Amino acid sequence: MNMVSLAEALSSTSYPGRGIVIGRSEDGKQAVTAYFIMGRSENSRNRVFVEEGKGIRTEAFDPAKLVDPSLIIYAPVRVLDDKTIVTNGDQTDTIFDGMKDGLTFEQSLRSREFEPDEPNFTPRISGVMEIKDGNYDFSMSILKSNNMDPACCNRYTFSYDNPKAGEGRFIHTYMGDGNPLPSFEGEPEVVDIKGDIDEFTNLVWDNLNEDNKVSLFVRFINIADGSYESRIVNKNK
After folding, report:
1. d(CA 203, CA 70)
2. Nearest Cα to 60, choosing from 76, 50, 169?
3. Angle, vertex CA 156, rays to CA 152 and CA 162, nearest 5
4. 6-234 falls under which CATH superfamily?
5. Does residue 71 have a pLDDT over 90?
6. DSSP-assigned letters across all residues of 12-79
7. pLDDT (tens digit, 9 = 90+) per residue, 7-32?
8. Which of 64, 87, 89, 149 could disulfide-pair with 126, CB 3.0 to 4.6 Å?
9. DSSP string over 167-233
10. Sheet with strand 213-222: strands edge to edge
11. What distance lies between CA 28 and its chain's CA centroid?
């Protein structure tokens, strides 16, 4: 699979939905992740990211306008020891609890499937980064309906050992806009990881569709000692 420009991958569609990027910085010293959310409805757009412990959560920007919190209010990022979990829903908690009890990333997700938002049946996308003793690897997962048939859940897990400097993987919920929204297809895209945390944050945010983007979270984790820096960008201020 050829590497593509992350900027082009983001800007090529008006609605990739929610997306996760995981990879390694150009200098090889930082584990990198980004998670963004987009929205077409007023309820989906009425959100911000806020810090919660070592992770983040979503909350309503204007609580008076919150209609249905079930699929939009959750903790996208949580940290368990040397593992950073990033997802597009409350399966973050499922993975956290499962791995805490000794299950693998894949086993933890066996109890979950795609979201029950007919007719889209939005895929659940997840990632886990593990940094230990100067080593770094990550895995990504997608749980999706079988071509919009909710009778079957297709489960895919992709694992990456010792990722290359300047390279990442990008998975998102939708192939583009539509009605119903077409689910992501194939292996996570190989994308370039460029710049320091602020340059990378700006690259991602600036290439998301202006009308539909809502919030962005970026974290750079020092592979040598596990220290990290984070950035949050919210359209609602």
Report:
1. 30
2. 50
3. 170
4. Inosine monophosphate cyclohydrolase-like (3.60.20.20)
5. no
6. T-S---SEEEEEE-TTS-EEEEEEEEE-SSHHHHSEEEEEETTEEEEEESSGGG----TTT-S-SEEE
7. 999 999 999 999 999 999 999 999 99
8. 87
9. EEEEEESBSSS-SSPPBP-SSPEEEE--SSHHHHHHHHHHHS-TTTEEEEEEEEEETTT--EEEEEE
10. 189-192, 167-172, 19-24, 30-38, 213-222, 228-234
11. 21
Q: Are 158 and 141 in contact (CB under 8 A)?
A: yes
> Alpha-carbon distance 230 to 154, whole Å?
33
DSSP-assigned beta bridge partners for residue 174: 183
CA 62 to chain centre: 24
Q: What is the pLDDT of residue 68?
A: 86
Q: How many residues does the chain have?
A: 237
The token duo for 42 is 């007023």
Q: Report the distance separating Cα 52 and Cα 87, nearest Å.
A: 15
Domain range annotation of the chain: 6-234
Six-digit token pair at 189?
A: 């895209």
The two three-digit tokens of residue 99, written as one number: 């791995």
